[in-house]
Amino acid sequence: MSKDNGKKTSCSEVRIKGLLDENGIKISEKQGLDELSSRGYGTTGDDGLFLTFYEAMYLMDKGLVEVENDKGELVDFEELLRHYEVVDENAWTQYLTYRDLRSRGYVVRGGFGWGVDFRVYKRGEYRKDTAKYLVLSMQEGKPTSPEILNRVLKHSRSLKKELILAVMNRRGEIVYYSISQLTLE
Predict the structure, then answer these.
(1) pLDDT digits (tens, 9 = 90+) for 22-65
(2) CA–CA distance, 161 with 155 (Å, rounded to integer)
(3) For residue 120, which of 181, 161, 177 has the smallest C-alpha distance?
(4) Which one, out of 88, 124, 166, 167, has a CA that is 20 to 30 A from the CA of 138?
(5) What is the mean pLDDT of the chain?
(6) Cβ pair 118, 131 in contact under 8 A
């Protein structure tokens, strides 16, 4: 067994190499692409597979992906996070939410916009049905206006999805809240 990034991996385990891009990670190797894609990772295109930063960080933490910069040097987890934080100030919260949902067995895909971070599929429903949940991630103590929450809620209702608020508390744990509209009769 070899040890890499503090994780033990078997010598026969294949690590997929990706190239750091300003918006994520490009994987052009054919080996492993189908497996990653079938498990709900990345977006397939003509160039191969494109992983978001949070997907690449998750797969890197699992020991399945190595990321290189344009000079061919390996990029570690912290450097990848710094690149992600340039693109999105909520990077750490989104990553922790993504990691938590994946560890619970959900397939998690990017959101639809409108402030939605993720689409989450019921277990076993990926590629069989549409996402059931839309997830908005935020940090405890960081204010969000009610107008933004209302706009996202209306958007999720128009798509017939349940809106979930994922809040990272001060200890770095993710707490989930279901958001709905109250109508008084």
Answers:
(1) 889 998 877 667 778 878 898 888 778 899 999 999 999 999 99
(2) 9
(3) 161
(4) 124
(5) 84
(6) no
Q: What is the pLDDT averaged over residues 133-153?
A: 89
* Contact of 59 with 39, CB cutoff 8 Å: no
- The helix-helix angle for 91-103 and 53-61 (nearest 10°) equals 50
What integer pLDDT is reported at residue 14 of this predicted model? 53
For 66-96, letters b (16+ CB in 10 Å) and e give: bbeeeeeeebeeeebeebbeeeeebbbbbbb
Domain end residue (candidates: 72, 87, 102): 87
Contact indicator for 73, 20 with CB cutoff of 8 Å:
no
Report pLDDT for 3: 41
- Number of separate domains in the chain: 2
Q: Which domain holds residue 110?
A: 91-179
Q: What percent of the chain has pLDDT over 90?
A: 44
Neighbouring residues of 107: CB distance < 8 A, sequence distance ≥ 6: 39, 40, 120, 121, 125, 126
Give pLDDT, residue 132: 87
Boundary-marking domain end, from 87, 116, 151: 87
What DSSP character marks residue 77? H
